[in-house]
Amino acid sequence: MASTLVSSSSEVQTISHHPSIQDEIQKLSKAGTTSLKNNEAAQALSMFKKAYILADGVPETQSQKRCLFNLGAAYIAIGKPKKGLKCLLKCKSKGSEEKDGDFYFNIAAAYDEMKEYSKAVKFYQRAISEYLPSETQSISDALIKLGYCSVNVGDLPSAARSFRLASLSYQKAEKTEDAAMAMREAGSYMIRSQKFSKAEVLETLAECAQLCSGITNQDLLGKLYNHIGLHYAEMMCFHQAGKYFMKAMQICSGANFSIRKRAVLLQNLGAIYNALCQYENSLRYHSEAAHLYGALRERNAQGQSLCNLAYAYSQLKNYDMAEYYYQEALNAFVDVGDLYGQQQVCEGLGATSFCLGDSDQAISYYKQALTLFGKSKETSDLSRERVLGKLRDAVKYQTSHQCPASCRDSFSNTTAAQSSPKVARDDRGSVASEQETYLYDEPENEYSGNEKKQRDGYTERTVTSRTDSVSSHLIPQ
Fold it and tell me: In the chain, which end has fewer C-beta atoms inside a 10 angstrom radius, N or C?
């Protein structure tokens, strides 16, 4: 449902010649406003229509203007933005006395609903400029909407700045939860845009973490800590990432406990230990995460955790266990049709087989990985070239019976490879490296609306974020 504003005054002045009609208009307007606050847009529209019909029959024009303004807002909220826009423009042509900030906000909301985001950006900016400095709630809400429209037009730096300004505005209004979510969103788009320095991003994440100290909603706090951890991981600050994943884990207990939340956090903590090359510590996290995802019958997530576990064993040179868990991960990815996961596992199995001395099997897995490259949409030419290079090395070894250094060092010389993993953000917001360790970004609940508007949810990513894992090279995906 689109976010809209109704008239700042549902009350109308009573004209002595039409007291009963004015009373009915006032009653309908109040009822419509209440329905819109409760996200009952259809009911609100019905009330506002009746109010407008009554207002159109009396000479007092202010009632007509207010009812027309509210009718426009209801049309936008119900998903009929063109009708809503028509009402708003007609209202303005009658010389509406509604605040210009609210008027431009609703115009922007109509264009937003029509997916004409460039126009929406212009009118949200106009609304922000029209609001008084004291109207911090309205300014904040408009900045949030502006941020998402900026994302939709591909202007991620502007989106990041809008979310940051929204956070500062919410802080003035003492809306700590809103401020923290907006600051977290700012950090996310700063990272995605790649237009901000590392110091700027880390400052934003630190501010978000500071705001979290004032949040009492434990469910929200756990989600924010998980997201902060993911963003630190994207910035390759793995110790900080682990700190916030652990904070989220501590909250995941008692009334806030859920099997899935725990599985997500175990997966992320295991991934961080992999990134820090603390493989012995990572094993129990990967193993428990895989077990919990299995209990939930989430095969894709289970496959990710099994892949993480296989990678950790490979780095500990326990290639038999690595092979076993790669096979289990492959079965999971096949079950759900995840071609990208299958390709990654086949590459890992190729390297593992080579280290076990089975060059024939290694060649077979590398060929299988290349076949999957052609089917998966989540591949790159660099990844393909890397696997081709490994295949050539394996074939060369098979013919010469001498292991090339590049293959022999595939698992033994991982420290240098992991000291500077390359970050790549794909369409799902992932952090990637070769044969990635899978991080999970838990989707958030929708952002709750205030008394005036139903705002967009901070539903950033229902994705799998990934960083740092199997094999010798890193994927600059």
Answer: N
